[in-house]
Design brief:
Number of helices: 10
Membrane topology: Lipid-anchor
Organism: Macaca fascicularis
Largest sheet: none
Pfam family, one: RGS
Shape: elongated
Radius of gyration: 24 Å
Keywords: GTPase activation, Lipoprotein, Membrane, Palmitate, Phosphoprotein, Signal transduction inhibitor
CATH architecture of the domain at 96-226: Orthogonal Bundle
Region (Disordered): 221-240
């Protein structure tokens, strides 16, 4: 009896090729990853683009923390630290970060929250939803009818029409309704599409963002900074 051919799993992530199904995979040397071996194998199974975007998410969180001038420790890439020179600002930022988990509205109303959420959506290849929502918010501020009409068509071509470069996930009826609205452009012509995209983010992506390791790490440090404000600034003299 001839030998049975080896099984091969299709896809971009990995292929067993000639390896037995019961043979443990040795994908990366132990020195390349401080995590347990099982985690190394799990990470190695992801496409390179997924890993790169995950790293970018954590890096971007560190970058916008640094830009907010809160004394982020620049010596540790991706590690979020509160500095000791801006106690009041640290506490305000801590409240901002913790507010993101209170409601989706608070997240969208925070400049840093939007930046963090956008970085997370990039790891899921769904950043077009937030970008469309932001484009609609800016669109509503346009006063000139000529500029509004021009911007409306650009938004439609970029996010709404079939095969758009950043096509958002909306139903056919909403797409056609938006197309009809462009015949007479008003500040509300994208409201239906924007609302459905927002609902999708709130029910789908937002919960996963809150559960992401990067946000949980950030929120934990924000909680610690809020609970111990004396660690962020010098104690005020007592007047008793």
């Amino acid at each position: 009896m001839g030998s049975r051919p080896k099984r091969r799993i299709p896809g971009d992530c990995f292929s067993l090729r000639s390896r037995s199904l019961l043979e443990p995979a040795t994908i990366l040397p132990a020195t390349c990853c401080p995590a347990p071996a099982a985690m190394c194998r799990t990470l190695a199974a992801f496409p390179t683009t997924c890993l790169e975007r995950a790293k970018e998410f954590k890096t971007r969180l560190g970058i916008f923390l640094h830009k907010s001038e809160l004394g982020c420790d620049t010596g540790s890439s991706g590690k979020f630290e509160w500095g000791s020179k801006h106690g009041k600002e640290n506490r305000n930022f801590s409240e901002d970060v913790l507010g993101w988990r209170e409601s989706f509205d608070l997240l969208l109303s925070s400049k840093n929250g939007v930046a963090a959420f956008h970085a997370f959506l990039k790891t899921e290849f769904s950043e077009e939803n937030l970008e469309f929502w932001l484009a609609c918010e800016e669109f509503k501020k346009i006063q000139s009818a000529t500029k509004r009409a021009s911007r409306a068509h650009r938004i439609f071509e970029e996010f709404i029409c079939s095969e758009a470069p950043k096509e958002v996930n909306i139903d056919h009826e909403t797409r056609e309704l938006t197309r009809m609205n462009l015949q007479t452009v008003t500040a509300t012509c994208f409201d239906t599409a924007q609302g459905k995209t927002r609902t999708l983010m709130e029910k789908d992506s937002y919960p996963r963002f809150l559960k992401s390791p990067a946000y949980r790490d950030l929120a934990a440090q924000a909680s610690a900074a809020s609970a111990t404000p004396s660690s962020c600034s010098q104690a005020e003299p007592s007047h008793t």
